[in-house]
Write a structure and sequence with these properties.
Helix content: 40-55%
Number of strands: 7
Order of helices and strands: HHHEHEHEHHEHHEHEHHEHHHHHHHH
Distance between the termini: 89 Å
Oligomer: single chain
Shape: flat
Number of helices: 20
Structural class: alpha/beta
């Protein structure tokens, strides 16, 4: 029966696991837990192909408990009940170790079905997820578990595992394997930190290569063919989607045009032009704002042009928008002022309108015939001092002029006009 290369050479010891030194290196806490044999309920969180299942298997080997594996995308509450029925029987006298992959796919009721058994320790749960567990895992499960984050693998870590895979396949096929300079390094960098992708690429290279006598040469051309677009990690509804949008906005906010182009390119390469357009409009209003208010119609024009053109030409106006905003002065003074005002409104502050700000219809049903409103356009510089905020907010300041040239010019103008 066919068995994938990634499974054939799956590490049997922690020393063979590449990457994750922050939790599995010498002296790291997860390694110490595993070595002790006293395994608590664990949740492994991180991207695909980073070693979560491998570490769970190693843990199972170090315990004397029966191991069950379930994938939450296909499992049901009935599967949990079937496992629970074996507790305290000769099938599982010491309890069981349950590895539950993709726990985020279990709904609240399904997750709750585990609680009683992990509470009394008869089931030790090791769950894995590619999504943020704090968003997708029921709080009662979280409170009974320890969370460890698995990081995306570096190209160096991936290359180390690929070398092992090439050696294994060479021995298995009886071929002497050589690789064109830089070919394996290219494959390691192109897999997006997903070791499973990298090992699948090695397997395909061996299956498709044409050996010359007893020698097999892995070429750069073949490597590029099997790794095209494989470096993309993207899930439109997952953490990676929001991380990518966040990285784009923070790069533009931080005035780094190179990083802005990089993250915009990743969005466009993933085919998510809609999210890119929406986020660029948000950035124009939120981060450039009053420092360069003309940026809003400019970015809107770029977005409109992109939607009219479609890809690949859409990248041109969107690139212009990203670089322009990254290199523009920044101000968040406008939306910060509004957020402060919203906070006061939600606290119930504000009261009634000052009499002179009410609409003139108020004169028709009140005893007070004159509002006392002063029309600013009748006064020098089109301004006159009068109360605008409700009585309980008089003296409150929400807006602070930003330090950029445009807002400071406006401040200087109004300071002169409004001086006592």
């Amino acid at each position: 029966m066919y068995q994938p290369l990634a499974d054939l050479i799956r590490p049997k010891t922690l020393d063979d696991v590449v990457g994750q030194e922050h939790i599995l290196g010498e002296g790291a806490i997860l390694r110490r837990l595993i070595d002790s044999g006293n395994i608590p309920n664990l949740i492994f969180y991180g991207p695909s192909g980073t070693g979560k299942t491998t570490v769970a298997n190693i843990i199972a080997e170090k315990t004397n408990r029966k191991l069950y594996r379930l994938n939450a995308t296909t499992a049901s509450t009935a599967d949990i009940k079937e496992i629970a029925a074996q507790l305290d029987t000769f099938m599982a006298p010491d309890g069981v170790l349950l590895y539950l992959d993709e726990i985020q796919s279990f709904n609240k009721k399904q997750q709750q079905s585990l609680l009683e058994h992990i509470e009394n320790g008869k089931i030790t749960l090791i769950a894995s997820t590619t999504e943020n567990p704090y968003f997708y895992v029921f709080n009662a499960i979280l409170s009974r578990s320890t969370i460890f984050e698995f990081k995306q693998l570096t190209p160096q870590a991936v290359k180390k595992a690929m070398d092992r895979a090439v050696a294994y396949m060479g021995e298995k096929t009886g071929l002497t394997v050589t690789a064109e300079e830089g070919a394996l390094e290219y494959a390691a960098a192109s897999c997006g930190g997903d070791l499973r992708k990298a090992l699948n690429a090695v397997e395909v290279l061996f299956s498709a290569a044409d050996p010359k006598s007893d020698t097999l040469r892995l070429t750069m051309e073949d490597v590029k063919a099997v790794t095209q677009r494989s470096s993309m990690r993207y899930d439109r509804d997952g953490d990676n989607h929001y991380d990518l949008l966040s990285a784009l906005q923070k790069s533009i906010r931080g005035s780094d045009p190179d990083a802005a182009c990089h993250y915009l390119a990743r969005l466009l390469e993933a085919g998510d032009m809609i999210s890119a357009c929406r986020r660029l409009m948000v950035i124009a209003c939120e981060d450039v704002g009053l420092a360069y208010p003309q940026i809003i119609p400019i970015v809107k024009a770029c977005v409109d042009a992109a939607n009219m053109l479609g890809m690949p030409e859409a990248r041109i106006p969107l690139g212009d928008a990203a670089v322009l905003m990254a290199t523009s002065p920044k101000s968040n003074s406008g939306h910060v002022a509004l957020d402060m005002a919203l906070a006061d409104v939600r606290k119930g502050k504000g009261g009634t309108f000052p009499r002179h700000l009410q609409n003139v219809h108020a004169d028709s049903y009140t005893m007070e015939r004159e509002q006392g409103y002063l029309y600013p356009h009748d006064f020098p510089n089109h301004w006159v001092r009068q109360q605008y905020l409700p009585d309980d907010l008089v003296g409150t300041t929400y807006y602070e002029y930003g330090p950029n040239k445009l807002e400071q010019s406006a401040k200087k103008y109004w300071d002169e006009i409004k001086k006592p």
